[in-house]
Amino acid sequence: MNRFVERVEPYFLSEDPFVQRYAIEMLEDTYLPEGDTFLTGLKAVDRGPVTEYSSPILPNLIYLPLNEEGLKEVVNRLDVMGKKDNNRLFYIQLITNASTELLTTYRKEVKQYVGEEQLQEVEKLPSLTIEELYMALADVMVYLDEHEFNQALYDHGKRIIKELVKKGGIESWEVQNGLQNKIDDEKFFGFEGIYNVYMAGEIQEESVVPQLVNLFKNEEEGDFLFEETANSLVKIGTDLVVREVENIALYGNTFFYTLDVLGRIKTKEAEKALLRLFDQADDPTAKTIIADNLCRHLSTDAIPRIEDLVETGYEDRLLCLEESLYVNCVMNGVQHPKLPEWRHLLEVMELEMLNEPPALIPQPVISDEKIGRNDPCPCGSGKKYKKCCL
């Protein structure tokens, strides 16, 4: 088990609801946990809320990978669950995200939840040649470029790429050339380019890191490209990634993505880069995001800096840095004198949210304004747009 995961995972079962919530979110999209971490998450689900402040756990387990034991457990739960159970869709999504190998091995058990047509498309992939897989991927790219976006088809394209990687069908030079060709074609990056970005992450191709990082400088590109670029850089996760991202981290309006990369790469070098950026940043939003990411690194060096920021003022519409500080200190065993004060503030905030009348609950926002998937949701919920009104 990765050392950072080993450090954080036990807090999935914390009796402190604020620590538990933050710990589960801390591993999101880091690509570090393995199947056993999901099983720990299920134990937290089964235990139920520890206090009235507890947040639902199951939605935050979607990003964790399933192993064989995990898939069996999810299927067993669905088999005894009523069709109107609020958790049913989350469990079905977990099965849908499962690896091709698991879905084909447990075809009979998952069929009713995945669907026959989708399952047939999945189970034929291992029998296809490398050439046939590339042809299937080309069909997906053409459809996505010419029609309305289809998430299931987009995810199937990623599944095809995973099969190509398994068969050794993706060479470094192909990714390098594919990316450069799309970068040279300034008019239209398209899904071919986005899938090339995804391939770079899947084979952890470090040689294309400068190309990937430079994509953040073109603010006219869509959020899909930025999100996949960030994901691939996190998967590669080397010191080179950290250095290149740090160089442009505060550039323009894409700092939501660049800082996210440094927050998700759980290395000492990434923590040091965030500390340097914290000292350099003038924008209050960027400084607030950096501070939270440092807490998500469990950085003790950052605690006095962030405490000063809280005292002088930060972007509190974006997130609650008192919560970040509180959890950072608790998980590091730091007996900070302000722990009771921060804890009381969190309890008051949670009670206010629980007592809000229905009319004040943020409603889904439909806006013509361009909103990044990782930007704060305009409804005011405090969540990322992709996890809220999107």
Automatic annotation (TrEMBL):
<dbReference type="InterPro" id="IPR004027">
    <property type="entry name" value="SEC_C_motif"/>
</dbReference>
<protein>
    <submittedName>
        <fullName>SEC-C motif-containing protein</fullName>
    </submittedName>
</protein>
<dbReference type="Pfam" id="PF02810">
    <property type="entry name" value="SEC-C"/>
</dbReference>
